[in-house]
Design brief:
This protein has 139 residues and is mainly beta. It is built from 1 helix and 12 strands, in the order E-E-E-E-E-E-E-E-E-E-E-E-H. Helix content is 8%, strand content 42%. A 5-stranded antiparallel beta sheet has the order 1-9-6-11-4, with no helix packed on it. A 5-stranded antiparallel beta sheet has the order 8-7-10-5-12. It has a two-stranded antiparallel ribbon with strand order 2-3. A hairpin with a 4-residue loop joins strand 7 and strand 8. The protein is globular. It comes from Shewanella submarina.
């Protein structure tokens, strides 16, 4: 089973341009409590390098592109975000890394919770321990 879950957004538009509407509990599968965006990321910079205990997110490359690496403690998968019509659903307890930002990349993230430092797992070894503790097959 793939840990990469992509969402497709319906683009509406005409000769004037395009529009995508995001709605909580509709095309965003949770209540939205926070939105932020990352831009002007310098060449060869890696972002992310953490997981969340409870937070769920949808990442959308509004402009440009970047590569995500997702890791569930047993498997790692890469996915490129390069279209505002697609969102990457990032569930809780997934290690995430963002690489290879294009110079013009604007990455928007829609989150299920407000910022809470205690929800972060910033050390990969701690993340693996958390995965093992939450794995029902190990109980």
């Amino acid at each position: 089973m793939s840990i990469v879950k992509m969402l497709k957004f319906n683009a509406l538009g005409d000769e004037r341009g395009s529009l995508i509407a995001l709605e909580q509990n509709n095309n965003i599968p949770f209540e939205v409590r926070r939105i932020y965006y990352i831009f002007d990321t310098k060449k060869n910079v890696i972002r992310g390098l953490h997981a969340h205990k409870n937070l769920k997110q949808v990442a959308i490359a509004i402009k440009g592109s970047c590569r995500f690496v997702l890791d569930d403690g047993t498997a790692r998968e890469d996915v490129w975000l390069k279209s505002p019509n697609e969102g990457l659903l990032i569930d809780s307890c997934l290690w995430r890394e963002m690489h290879d930002f294009s110079e013009d990349c604007v990455l928007m993230v829609v989150a299920s919770e407000k910022y809470d430092e205690s929800d972060y797992i910033r050390n990969y070894e701690d993340f693996l321990k958390e995965c093992e503790a939450n794995d029902p097959s190990t109980k």
